[in-house]
Design goal:
46% of the residues lie in helices and 9% in strands. The strands form 3 sheets. Strands 2-1-3-6-8 form a 5-stranded parallel β-sheet, with helices on both faces. It has a two-stranded parallel sheet with strand order 4-9. Helix 1 crosses helix 10, helix 4 packs across helix 14 and helix 5 packs parallel to helix 11.
């Protein structure tokens, strides 16, 4: 009997040590993982939003998180929204982001920017796009289907990536690790505060991998199907840019998307002048709008949503939160933009 009790105590002690070790590793992982407050993949902030509180969700690459300002959309339409884009986010990654986002939100419409159809299968931002996702099925799926084989171990065990960040830790790292993320005053938007003189319209080299394009197309159809199954309007759009996919390639894609039953389509380049975009002032660079351009484009989107989708704000939205977000955006706009200058070598 005494031997049995001793074995039980030893087993309990071992379990306690293993549990303490697991908790310590989990906290070290949370502490050393870089904190993402802007430039996409802001899952920490997104998960602070009240469940089922967003009327519209936006997905895609930096062409979304630099170009769509949810506070401006709220001012124009009264609709709440959040930008859950990621840097160089591919369409298959967008499909996984959407599935994860719909675990806590039930929007009326989902906007997906289409340039990701022309990205390579793996981009330079896998560690961010996948590594910032909440732990669960969708993150694991992204790890094994969208990440390069050489980074999968680090995505599964982030301390392999970030164990050497101890000397770089900031007060923000500790605050987020201990208290969690706060509500994002920009709701996923990243404010670009510089303007750059235009070099005119240019053509960007397309991805020439037909197999990857068809794989992305299959994910686009999955996005459409998922949205319709939840009663969500899927909107596929092209952000207005100066550096564009070859027109023939984009036209072929848009024709194919327009044939998708239940999908809505908006080509931002075709209506480039409608938002009143000034190519000599409203762009941060040839791809991304600055704060002035984002205001114009978002207000244009608001008008398009009112006329084409006829969405109505849900009654239970947090008006005080959105007034605060509007005031925050207006305060940023009260400061003049700076002209971009090349870094001195």
């Amino acid at each position: 009997m005494r031997r049995l009790l001793t074995r039980r105590r030893e087993a309990l002690a071992l379990v306690s040590v293993l549990l303490a070790l697991a908790l310590a590793l989990a906290f070290m992982t949370r502490l050393t993982t870089p904190k993402q407050h802007a430039y996409g993949s802001v899952w920490g902030h997104f998960l602070q939003e009240e469940p089922d509180s967003e009327d519209v969700l936006f997905f895609g690459s930096s062409l979304v998180y630099c170009d769509v300002a949810p506070a401006a959309l709220w001012e124009t339409t009264g609709l709440s929204s959040f930008v859950m884009a990621g840097p160089e986010q591919t369409i298959p990654m967008t499909a996984l982001y959407l599935r994860e986002a719909l675990r806590t939100q039930s929007p009326q419409a989902v906007f997906v920017e289409l340039t990701g159809m022309f990205y390579s299968r793996c981009t330079n931002y896998t560690k961010t796009n996948v590594g910032q996702m909440p732990w669960g099925y969708n993150r694991l799926a992204a790890t094994f289907t969208e990440a390069e084989p050489e980074v999968r171990a680090g995505l599964l065990f982030p301390l392999l990536f970030y164990h050497d960040r101890w000397s770089e830790l900031t007060a923000d790292d500790w605050t987020v690790a201990l208290r969690g993320y706060s509500r994002d005053p920009l709701a996923g938007y990243t404010c670009m505060r510089q303007w750059r003189p235009s070099e005119g319209f240019q053509v960007r080299p397309p991805d020439r991998d037909p197999e990857n394009f068809e794989r992305s197309w299959a994910s686009l159809v999955q996005i459409r199907d998922l949205c319709l199954s939840r009663g969500i309007i899927p909107v596929f759009y092209v952000a207005p840019t100066l550096l564009r996919v070859r027109q023939a390639d984009m036209d072929a894609l848009l024709a194919r998307v327009r044939a998708l039953e239940g999908a809505r389509v908006l080509d931002g380049n075709a209506v480039f002048d409608s938002p009143g975009l000034d190519e000599s002032y409203d762009f941060y660079d040839s791809l991304h709008l600055n704060l002035a351009g984002a205001r114009k484009f978002t207000e244009f989107l608001g008008g398009w949503i009112r006329s084409e989708l006829a969405l109505r704000p849900a009654a239970a939205r947090d008006a005080a939160l959105w007034r605060a977000r509007s005031e925050y955006l207006r305060a940023l706009e009260a400061q003049p933009l700076e002209q971009w200058k090349p870094k001195e070598s």
